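In response to the reviewer comment on reproducibility (Comment 2.3), we provide here a single inverse folding case reported in full, input and output, so that an independent group could reproduce the run without further information from us. The structure tokens appear first.
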């Protein structure tokens, strides 16, 4: 028989068994809050005047957030769900090639220029370079320190047994 007695070994083993689940639970709750905050930052700040002006709301309405747990890994995403066709062009920039516009269901195009109504059979649109307006990447950059800090705090609380 050893000359010492270890007390609390059973409790220690139980605590270590729970530790992974506690860390996961804290990370899940924190990730849900952070994903919702990032989504709101994109919609309410970046797409409402800070980076881009809201016109139709289609781009802002396509911003979604999910948090998933799979094989013990917590993953949070803020992304474009059913984005309008111009979403990537605005985020990353790009070039719209020169093209012609013809009337789809009328005999002529009609538009206003310098206060005058003009009609045309065809409009020649020159190449347009669209600069990047990084509404998603900029939002993540804005919140990166907060996200890192909150996740670190969540793990620290779980390790201390403070999961609520």
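Designed residues, in position order:
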């Amino acid at each position: 028989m050893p000359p010492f007695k270890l007390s609390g070994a059973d409790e220690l083993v139980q605590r270590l068994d729970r530790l992974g689940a506690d860390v996961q639970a804290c990370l899940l709750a924190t990730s849900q809050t952070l994903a919702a905050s990032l989504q709101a930052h994109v919609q309410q700040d970046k797409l409402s005047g800070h980076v881009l002006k809201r016109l139709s709301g289609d781009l802002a309405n396509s911003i979604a957030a999910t948090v998933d747990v799979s094989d013990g890994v917590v993953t949070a995403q803020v992304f474009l769900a059913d984005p309008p066709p111009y979403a990537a062009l605005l985020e990353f920039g790009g070039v719209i090639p020169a093209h012609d516009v013809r009337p789809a269901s009328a005999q002529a195009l009609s538009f206003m220029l310098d206060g005058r109504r003009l009609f045309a059979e065809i409009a020649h649109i020159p190449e347009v370079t669209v600069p990047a307006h990084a509404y998603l990447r900029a939002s993540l950059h804005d919140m990166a320190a907060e996200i890192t800090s909150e996740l670190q705090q969540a793990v620290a609380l779980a390790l201390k047994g403070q999961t609520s």
